[in-house]
Amino acid sequence: MHILWLDLNSSYAHSSLALPALQAQTAGTSGIRWSTTTATINEHPGMTACQVARQAPDIVAATCWLFNRETLLHVLARVKALLPQCVIALGGPEFLGPNEDFLRLHPFVDCVFRGEGEEAFPAWLAYWNRPSQWHTVAGLCYLDPTDGGTYRDNGRAQVKDFAGLTPPETSPYFNWSKPFVQLETTRGCFNTCAFCVSGGEKPVRSLPLASIRRRIAMIHAHGIRNIRVLDRTFNYNSRHAHALLGLFREFPDIRFHLEIHPALLTEELKAALRDMPHGLLHLEAGIQSLRQEVLDTCRRAGRLEEALDGLRYLCALPNLETHADLIAGLPHYRLEEVFEDVRTLAGYCAGEIQLESLKLLPGTEMRRRAAELGIRYSPLPPYEVLATRDISADGLQTARQLSRLLDAFYNTAAWQEVTRRLIVEQEDFLHCFLEHLTDIGVIDQPMSLERRGSVLYLFLKESYPAYVTLMSLAWIRAGMSLKKQPAERVRTRHVTPPAAWTVVRGAYTARLRLVLLPAADETMHHWFGFEAETQSSRPVFEAVSPV
User: Fold this and answer.
1) Which is it for strands 512-517 and 524-531: parallel, antiparallel or unpaired?
2) Do residues 120 and 108 share a domain?
3) Distance CA 477, CA 527 (A)
4) CATH classification of the domain holding 353
5) What distance in Å separates the CA atoms of residue 371 and residue 366, rounded to the nearest whole number?
6) How many domains does one find in the chain?
7) pLDDT of residue 120
8) Same domain for 223 and 371?
9) What span, in angstroms and rounded, lies between the C-alpha atoms of 20 and 17?
10) Residues 477 and 496 grouped into a single domain
11) CA 425 to mean position of chain CA atoms
12) Can you give the three-state secondary structure of 318-350, one letter per residue?
């Protein structure tokens, strides 16, 4: 039996765990040969189909999700035309809902798996060419060729022995070439969020600490220094979370990315987070909305007041970075409230503010209840919400553009501090700047770091002149050209140190090339020193002196 895994990703930076996770469970089974074809959605589907057909597999398997679905189906339709006898089997989040319509619309797909595949897929391999036995495989959905194409639905597969699975890192198909890897320490979610595919995925199953330690050690031995922990809610169980934090400390040169629920922070967990080494953790705090009615409708566990208290605590910790998530398009969430919540999170000094538009994913409660909740959404991937009773189609487009503004300015380290201060201190800034970016036609255009800085500087010069010096300082610290307009007040010739200054950063030596940003309306001159020999664009020394 020859299984070809079609590894189709949105880009080469991404890599799915599905292949090594499934292959590892069949490693001891004789008579199975695996191969792969790797491609991205940007490649021509005909070329990818030819690469698959050239290997003449018995089975073509792949994971289907909202961002690769369209291209994947174009490839597989061609594969089936070239290899009519091969069996095409799919799994992934696209099949967590009803699947009969999909199978009837795409007859070149023989079957799809709903749910977790590590136990179901090996069970199916025993009968892959005997559809009369497919009814015994949990989670399998198919049109029964032995019964005139009757639709069969075997429910949702769930791994019974999560801790007993062979780790994907042991598979020869585990991809060690990426700068980060993904790691599950738990599967399932205690929460019941109506918009999430894991909203009903219970019970939560955990790996023993010794097993997690061995897997991290293996990852570390391969030189990987970033691990994205896939647990839906890292701190659903405080004891488990506390034990993991202790384990992470054993690997101080690895950076761990975690999703954390700020409403569930115990005092013990707060203390443990406060004492973690600097830079060891990167936290994603899924706050979603700062409105209790919205959270209640979404069936998200945890009281808003506790979530806000927890988020304020996390954002104030200097030893770790906390990103906060908002979702526009949730029921009862109005556009102006989205703007207000962005201002609140900026006031907390969130490391990033990630604003996404709601997508009604297959298998979620919110998709089933869309009509009842007054949600209109695209029937095609990525299933984005188009309008609700509380936000218009135009309003959701404004929220999308606000997200682009945040990514380009607040979520960019060079311009974050000046953007944050403007958001917090000037109530109308977000609206005015968004309108400006739209008017000059750049809100939906990719811009370089320098271009973004120039756009913001010119806007401030016209609309918020009190922040111009702050923007010029950010420009200089980011290593941008001192010949461009944001540095128009900078003096670079014949600059000598003042009689006295207060050093902000670094140490001054006569070898440094000194430049001056003279005071405008403020009371301080700003001095910067650059390495003359290395021609470094970033200053290594900074000081201030009174006017």
Assistant:
1) antiparallel
2) yes
3) 11
4) 3.80.30.20
5) 9
6) 4
7) 97
8) yes
9) 6
10) no
11) 29
12) CCCEEEEEEEECCCCCCHHHHHHHHHHHHHCCC
DSSP state of 277: P
Q: Are residues 387 and 421 in the same domain?
A: no
333/469 same-domain check = no
Instruction: Report angle CA 131, 134, 138 to the nearest 5 degrees.
Output: 160
> Which tokens sit at 86?
């091969």
CA dihedral in degrees (268, 273, 274, 277; nearest 10)? 140
**Structural domain range at position 203:** 179-394
pLDDT at 168 over 80: yes
pLDDT of the residue at 200: 65
> Using alpha carbons only, what angle is made at residue 489 by residues 486 and 494, rounded to the nearest 5 degrees?
130
211/347 same-domain check: yes
Q: Strand, helix or coil at 239?
A: helix
The Cα–Cα gap between 190 and 206 comes to 12
Q: Say if 140 falls within a structural domain.
A: yes
pLDDT of residue 13: 66
Count the alpha carbons within 13 Å of 120 in the hemisphere toward its beta carbon. Answer: 26
Q: Are strands 321-328 and 352-357 parallel, antiparallel or unpaired?
A: parallel
Helix axes 393-405, 429-439, angle to 10 degrees: 90
Same domain, 275 and 387: yes
59 plus 186 within the same structural domain? no
175: left (phi over 0), alpha (psi -120 to 50) or beta: beta
The DSSP code for 28 is T
Q: Which two tokens stand for residue 317?
A: 């910790």
The reported pLDDT for the residue numbered 302 is: 84
Q: Is pLDDT above 70 for 398?
A: yes
Identity of the residue numbered 434 = L
CB neighbourhood size of 520 (10 A): 11
Instruction: Give a yes or no: residue 183 inside a domain.
Output: yes
Least confident of 72-81, 175-184, 396-405: 175-184
Which residues make beta-bridge pairs with 384? 359
Query: Do 247 and 281 form a contact (C-beta atoms < 8 A)?
Result: no
- Of the three residues 394, 424, 454, the one that is the final residue of a domain is 394
Integer Cα distance of 520 and 65 in angstroms: 54
Distances (CA, A) of 363 to 298, 374, 426: 15, 18, 42
DSSP codes, 163-192: GGSPPGGGSTT---SSS-EEE-SEES-S--
